[in-house]
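Subject: mismatched residue count in predicted assembly?

I count 488 residues in my input, but I want to confirm that the predicted structure covers every chain. Input:
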Amino acid sequence: MGKTLALAGNFAAAYASKQINPQVVAAYPITPQTTMMEKFSEYVANGEVDTELVCVESEHSAMSACVGAAAAGGRVITSTAANGLALMFEVVYIASSLRLPITMCVMNRALSGPINIHGDHSDAMGVRDSGWIQIFNENPQEVYDTMFQACKIGEHKDVRLPVMVNLDGFITSHKIERVDTLDDKQVTDYIGPFETMYSLIDTDNPVTYGPLDLFDYYFEHKRQQVEAMKHALPVAKSVMRDYSKQFDRDYDIMEDYYLDDADYAIVTMSSTAGTTKFVVDKLRAEGKKVGLLKLRLFRPFPAEEVREKLAGLKQIAVLDRSDSFGAFGGPLFTEVRNALYELDERPGVVDYVFGLGGRDINAEQITSVYERLMSATERLAGDVNYLGVRGE
Amino acid sequence: MTLKGWNEVPMAGLVLDAGNAAEYHTGDWRTERPVWDEEKCKHCMQCWITCPDTAIQVKDKKMIGIDFDYCKGCGICADECPFDAIDMIEEDLEAE
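Triage response: the counts match. Full output below for your records.
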């Protein structure tokens, strides 16, 4: 095993990137992502990595450079947040449709406007249909370990898709915690050399990337992406489980906390899961049958697994750290509730949109959600609520 | 032409063969077809010079016909011909 370090989420991501030693990193600074790339630039300047660091003029260029480097056949890392991801939008789709396994950290931050630099999931949710694998992480340790898992999942020959490693802006990106690291050789052995498929610079085997693809074949290529996403689910499961076995960790595509005998549960992602565990502990000590389902893998969405985990519960609240204006509830709510439709006896499911623009969520608020679930006398009927906003 | 299914083609729309333009018959695009009147033709080669797709077939300095694999039916030859030896007619799309 490697050293135990005190690392903020961004430094955990940077440290993992150093150990991955990618061929190319192209990035543009944006709060709260900046410190990851500052740290990584230090590694480059100190000669601790072999990486070609491309300091581009915008996020659109950052992802474009990553696409080029990945098509050339290199292992590629980038990171961004919020408006940076929004500016990348066009090329985010191109990266996944060209089937390029790029790893991108997103320090989830509220999209403008009004302008706000703090954490919510609106940026990542804005690209949830882009064909990227999306993993949400609770703390710096998860961020660190997930960086390596992301390589394994995205680069798998049946997947070949880019992977977004999400962490809550500031809450996780700037929170210093204990991180048990692997030593460099363990990382190198685990991820192995990057296996290039169809290198753009292999002149002996020339290949054209991105030709015009109209009504005769575009649909077929989209169907291929669907298939790649289908493969990504079992691959993600086996990668996370193998990683856990190999390095004495406990990762899966989701984490259930006191869910087995629970009647009432919260479903959420990222750092809020940590706060929710604290509340579950407290309520369990009072004998309340409450639990938590923390999703790590959001894309592909593990609908069957979510259904299995939540079957038999009485009432469920989904905590969504972004809204989908005009939709029936936030993005996580619509997925979770949709997944439960096949059950003969469906639990009540309600949505709580919370924490927009980094608005703090605390144990009292989460307790109040559990109390509502526990005090309901009939099946709750899919209402959408706003937790922690002022005004009636 | 039989089009292939999603699981039969390279991923992501990648083209794995170099120099494959020769296999792509752009004549498929044609909605109008040039009809050459050999009687009127003086073999002045104006059509050969102006055709953007080098679809005018020539042998021994004489025009001998049109290569319909690549003629897109743009009508430049008909327009340029000084002897009205080329007419454009509507392509019979049903017959394709």
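Strands of chain B lie at 32-36, 56-59, 62-66, 86-90. Marking this ticket as 'not a bug'.
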